[in-house]
Amino acid sequence: MAYSGVAMNDPSKGSLLLQLQNSWLRAHDDLASSNLVWSNRQQLERAADLQRLRNEQQVREALCVLRQAGEAPGSSSRHRGDPPLDPSASSSEPNRDPPSPDPEPSRANGGIRRRCHASGTPAAPSLTRTPGPHPDPSSAEGLRGQMPALANKVYFNYGGQGPLPTPSLEAIQASWRTIQELGPFASSVWPTVGVTLANLRRRLASWCGVPPERLAFTENVSSGCVLPLWGLPWQEGDELLISDAEHYGVVAACRELAQRQGLALTSFTVAEAWASSEAAHTSVLEALERSLTPRTRLVVLSHLLWNTGQLMPIAAVAARLAQHPNQPWLLVDGAQSLGSLPVAEAAAAADIYACTGHKWCCGPEGLGVVALSERLLEQARPTLIGWRSLADESAGTEGFHRDGRRFEVATSCTPLFAGLSSSLALLEAEGSDQKRLALIRQRSAQLWEGLGRISSVRRLLSEPPPAGLVSFQVEGQDPATLVQRLGERGIWIRNLPDPACLRACTHITTNPSDLEALLGALQHLVAASDSP
In angstroms, rounded to a whole number, what is the distance separating the alpha carbons of residues 56 and 23? Predict the structure, then answer.
């Protein structure tokens, strides 16, 4: 067995290198946690300095022993974070690479490999500081106070993009600074890059309820859906069964796939599931049952519908598909779910569960993740291929990663990973996913009930929403015009085309005054339109 690009015939050496990797991860986690608790910058700096000195000493001692044995990181042409594959193994085998820190390549001198520091002693990873004190986020109001975007407006567009907290913005800036200080393509930067990516991968794996090796980093939900979807082994005549409430980007990708591969495109009805959650789940499963055929090979369904806000029974759908002769793959659009409700059960049940960090997670745009099933990793081939897809980029002949990384492509913006990790940590500090969902539902129920007291308003769901999406229609009012008039008052919601409606999203940072402002403005606009 080999870890981190170093062939370890001696178990004690392998253990030592694993301890080295773990020390970096522990140091990063310890400091990330302290950023949320300590408000005194001097305390933070002292603790960071002590932690850095302690870990630098551990790194030097471990590397000294490994170098004497000729097995220090950088002495191999493989990725520092990737274990070598058995040359006799095929990339299609079900075995998975053990999870490890994500590397960044060096491409000098015609080769693609990791290199030791010129002095012969690779520098220990530099730990990123979050500069400056922040309000203690001991409540949702504390987190709200760290979001500049909420300071001068009433914001209900979390389903489009969440506001970035100041600590996350500073984490991004600090990561940029650290990379530039170490040297963006110097040997000393790779441990920091690897730790940053590995830390976020582990955190997201916990949120998604799957092992880290089943995750692939993407740019957004669309790429998370398309990259594995197009790599599946299709046969002409296979049917793609898509719900009638999916986002246009996913539908367009399926339509193009069907055209290229000679597949059939069919749909089933979920958009009219406006009754109670229990009744909606029953109607969705019945519609699915009516639409399945012997040729069905894929089902596409969102976890939380982006237009009506209804919750879909993903685990029950997956159980039904497991009984189908073809055992169709299940693709789940999780754009509106990660950060707004617990996703572990659904993500573990789906074959493709694609999420983004810039909506309900309040992270930076340009970074998402997709959770992939074991059977998909066995059956699907990479589609858009780059050096991060490869198990050994220096050789380019040993095939692709056997885990989720086969669907990662090439260079990513490392500071975005630091920013999203910070946003997730801030949300975690507010309580469990169930506790956060309870607060989100409390606010969405208050909005739903308030809308019911306004004449001419029709709410799409017949009961308070299962999460934070509240969709409604105003009789005799053009949705786009209403959005514009509300925006002139500093209140931001959005209009949707199908069904033509308005959508307001409540998060844990939504407060009662936000609800009062929106309801009051709507009531005023409706009354003004009714006046002769």
Answer: 10
Contact by Cβ (8 Å): 450, 515: yes
Compute the Cα dihedral for 209, 214, 219, 220 and give only its sign. negative
Rounded to whole angstroms, how far apart are CA atoms 95 and 79?
19
408 has a pLDDT exceeding 50: yes
> Residue 47: is it exposed, middle or buried by C-beta count within 10 angstroms (0-12/13-18/19+)?
middle
Residue in 244, 290, 283 with CA at minimum distance from that of residue 265 = 244
Q: Which residue has the tokens 């950088």?
A: 74
Q: 104 with 189: CB under 8 angstroms?
A: yes
Spatial CA neighbour of 216 closest among 208, 224, 207: 224
Contact of 131 with 38, CB cutoff 8 Å = no
- Give me the residues paired with residue 301 across strands: 332
DSSP, collapsed to helix, strand or coil, labels residue 492 as strand
Q: Give pLDDT tens digits for 105-138.
A: 433 333 333 333 333 334 334 333 343 444 544 4
Instruction: Return the H-helix or E-strand segment holding 301.
Output: strand 296-302
- The DSSP output letter for 266 is E
Cross-strand partners of 347: none
pLDDT tens readout for residues 36-72: 433 334 444 444 444 454 444 444 443 443 343 333 3
SS (H, E, C) 9-26: CCHHHHHHHHHHHHHHHH
Coil vs helix vs strand at 150: helix
Strand-pairing partners, residue 5, are none
Assess contact for 389 and 400: CB atoms under 8 A: yes
Q: Show the DSSP H helices in 401-499 as ranges.
A: 414-428, 433-451, 479-488
Distance, in Å, from the CA atom of 47 to the CA atom of 301, rounded to the nearest integer, reads 47
Nearest partner of 98 among 402, 374, 516, 303, judged by Cα = 402
Question: For residue 3, what is the enclosing H or E element?
Answer: strand 2-3
CA dihedral 267, 374, 105, 29 (to 10 degrees): 100
Which pair of structure tokens corresponds to residue 202?
């582990």
Helix 221-229 crosses helix 248-261 at what angle (to 10 degrees)? 20
Q: Please state, in angstroms and rounded to a whole number, the distance separating the CA atoms of residues 490 and 141.
A: 20
HSE (CB half, 13 Å, CA atoms) of 268?
22
Q: For residue range 282-326, what is the model confidence (pLDDT) as tens digits?
A: 999 999 999 999 999 999 999 999 999 999 999 999 999 999 999
Please give the backbone phi and psi of residue 456, each rounded to the nearest 5 degrees, phi first: 75, -5
Distances (CA, A) of 327 to 97, 244, 291, 294, 378: 26, 21, 15, 10, 15
What φ, ψ does residue 390 adopt, rounded to 5°?
Answer: -85, 140
The rounded Cα 34 to chain-centroid distance in angstroms is: 23
Query: Which amino acid, one-letter code, is at 483?
Result: V
Among 182, 79, 81, 169, CA closest to 127: 182
Cβ atoms of 64 and 19 closer than 8 Å: no
**Gap between the Cα atoms of 17 and 35, Å rounded:** 28
User: Whole-prediction pTM value?
Assistant: 0.77
- In one-letter notation, the amino acid at residue 219 is E
Residue 212's closest CA among 104, 315, 100? 100
